[in-house]
Q: What sequence folds into this?
């Protein structure tokens, strides 16, 4: 890895794993250990926030330069060829997580039982930074995780449908980010680094119903950009193609590098997100199943009591 990049990421509290992977403690991991607060993924899907390993196998590789992304974007590459072994990545990622949480043990606010459990993650969020599907051995990586009893959540921007079509095994849960309802808005908000990003996203949405795993569409909502009622129908048309089990309308948060491109006022209120979710649910025949106001997110789905891993 570029030494300058390594230095910047380390200063931002990333643990660098091998040539192209990274780990960083999630905000909700810390909240769970110190204050007993849980991530919306625990509320919605039954995972344990303190046992979640947030990582990426493609820390500087992505196909987009999204305006709302709070990650470092200065060194983005669109392909990843010289790749590390999957077993090496998961071994080193777990060790990196253990090292990152070491200091919490001595904090009097820390739940010691949770801290011990946190050293043995049973959930892996494959997102964090970059586009994970650019890692060519992602299926092997998920297989290594599943053999260890680790649940896997993959978050993708949907611009690499070939990788998803041939992914084996699939993750426990697959998120596809659909941020823009039109190709024009997609180009402005997602700033694709490839010429066929929008077209590839459409292929991914069409592929989703055939994938034998839990599927979720995430709409990151940005005030004054993509949350207006006039876009509801267009979003619904995209979601109808994907036919996901769940949809997450989630508010943009003014943090990290996104502050250089957007404004505090671009964060929607939870009421705005709920309104958007209700309008979208009516279009699709879904209903609002749950909400998490402190994460500014609502969960839409077709059936109640079907939103956990149990």
A:
């Amino acid at each position: 890895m570029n030494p300058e990049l390594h230095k910047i990421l380390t200063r931002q509290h990333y643990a660098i794993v091998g040539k192209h992977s990274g780990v960083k403690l999630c905000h909700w991991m810390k909240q769970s250990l110190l204050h007993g607060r849980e991530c919306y993924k625990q509320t919605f899907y039954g995972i344990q926030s303190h046992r979640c390993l947030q990582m990426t196998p493609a820390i500087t590789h992505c196909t987009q330069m999204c305006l709302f992304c709070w990650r470092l974007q200065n060194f983005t590459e669109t392909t990843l060829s010289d790749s590390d072994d999957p077993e090496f990545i998961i071994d080193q990622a777990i060790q990196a997580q253990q090292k990152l949480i070491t200091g919490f043990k001595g904090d009097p606010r820390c739940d010691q039982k949770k801290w011990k459990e946190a050293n043995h993650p049973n959930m892996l969020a494959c997102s964090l930074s970059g586009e994970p599907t650019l890692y060519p051995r992602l299926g092997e990586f998920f297989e290594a995780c599943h053999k260890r009893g680790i649940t896997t959540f993959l978050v993708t921007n949907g611009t690499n449908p070939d990788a998803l079509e041939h992914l084996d095994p699939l993750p426990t849960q697959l998120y596809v980010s659909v941020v823009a309802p039109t190709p024009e808005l997609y180009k402005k908000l997602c700033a694709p680094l490839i010429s066929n990003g929008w077209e590839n996203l459409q292929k991914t949405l069409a592929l989703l119903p055939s994938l034998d795993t839990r599927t979720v569409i995430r709409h990151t909502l940005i005030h004054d950009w993509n949350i207006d009622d006039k876009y509801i129908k267009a979003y619904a048309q995209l979601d109808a193609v994907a036919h996901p089990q769940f949809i997450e309308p989630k508010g943009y948060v003014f943090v990290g590098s996104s502050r250089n491109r957007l404004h505090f006022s671009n964060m929607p209120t939870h009421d705005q997100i709920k309104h958007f979710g209700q309008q979208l649910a009516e279009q699709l025949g879904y209903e609002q199943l749950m909400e998490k106001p402190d994460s500014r997110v609502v969960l839409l789905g077709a059936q109640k009591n079907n939103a956990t891993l149990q």
